[in-house]
Protein: Spore germination protein
Organism: Paenibacillus violae
Amino acid sequence: MLNSVQEIKSIFADHDDLFIQEEQFDQTALFLIGYKTLIDFTKSNLYIRQMAKMSSTVHELFTNLSDQLDVDTDQMIKAVVEGKLVLLSDKERNAVLEPVSRNLSRSIDQPKNESIILGPMDAFGEDIDINVGLLRKWLSTERLCHNSYLVGELAKRRISMLYIKGKAPNALIEKVDRHLKEIESDIETINDLNKHFGQRKFNPVSYLFSTEIPNQAIESLKKNRIVLFLDNYPFALVFPHLFLDMLSTVNDRNFPNGLSVMIRVLRGLGALATLILPALYVALTSVNPDVLKVDLALFISESREGIPLTPIIETLTMVVIVDLIIEAIVRLPKSVGPAITMVGGIILGQAMVEAKLVSNLLVIVITAMLIASSSVVGVQNSLYIRALKYPILILASVYGILGVFAGLTFVCIYLASLTSCDIPYMTFRIKGKGDSN
């Protein structure tokens, strides 16, 4: 094989979507090089064959195909990264061609699960090659490496791992590569992947942060992390999942710095409010009413007048009903969901207040908690934050305000104990290969 081909092959050794196809023309070996995730090879090769029939020599063929002839290796590498097709002959001649590109826009839709105010509206799809192509399109660099795996016992499934060479730590790349190569069972869900990465059985926090926005995945790659794609799954899985993922998105940077910081602070307050609002209501109405001003204590007492349920039973009932309504809205068809929202959120709540089963104040608290839980980034983050409010609520019903602070302390200790491949969940940034200690 040619020295130039060997050099390109060694540079792109970690790029499993690179193809090097050998063809014959006029007793001369020709090599076609490019990314199969960016180039429609079948149509491009057909075009070259048609041009070959109209050319009598290799030089004439190269001249008919391109104006960029006999470029150096750096230019060839740049052309491959940009999605062009490089044609080399065994006589050390080369040409850079404009190929028939893969259509990376036609089947790309807007995000369904993530709202974007300012930023690109593209979203990942089910085709893993299109997803990788989207990242190649937005991040044109030879340092973006791509490794693919075929895993499963009965149903083989493709998994792609992408990272930026020189950014992601080598130790992290090696551990993820080893975990993926050791997979022997079928991978049907994200939780199946979590188990292979060592997630504890009852841990509500996923090791993988899913996003359907290419811009968000690219930002994670630049922050020294790894992105995984699972075939037939329209999301990028960012590894490892960190605490700050629930507070910030890449599109926040489109706002002025002051507004961006304010938005992130509001998300943090939303997560905190989700954890403590129901617990504070129980603590202040049943265990520690003496910490309130007399006027406020009398107001709360009047709001609960005639209610037969204890504060903890009253609050647990409302919290569970709200969580059930949210799950019902998610699972039901869109044509039925708004009706369930109306019945569950307004009619049922009003009926419970008029029947003296819950107080007006509790309805306000639960509504505020529901809004606050929706302010964090990522559905999976909202779910686990809502799950962690229950132990704090139980502690508050027994120990009052002290139980609220004890519950928050336990939650912080628990989150701080979580690690993904020895990277703490509560870390602010991952040190890259080139970072100094």
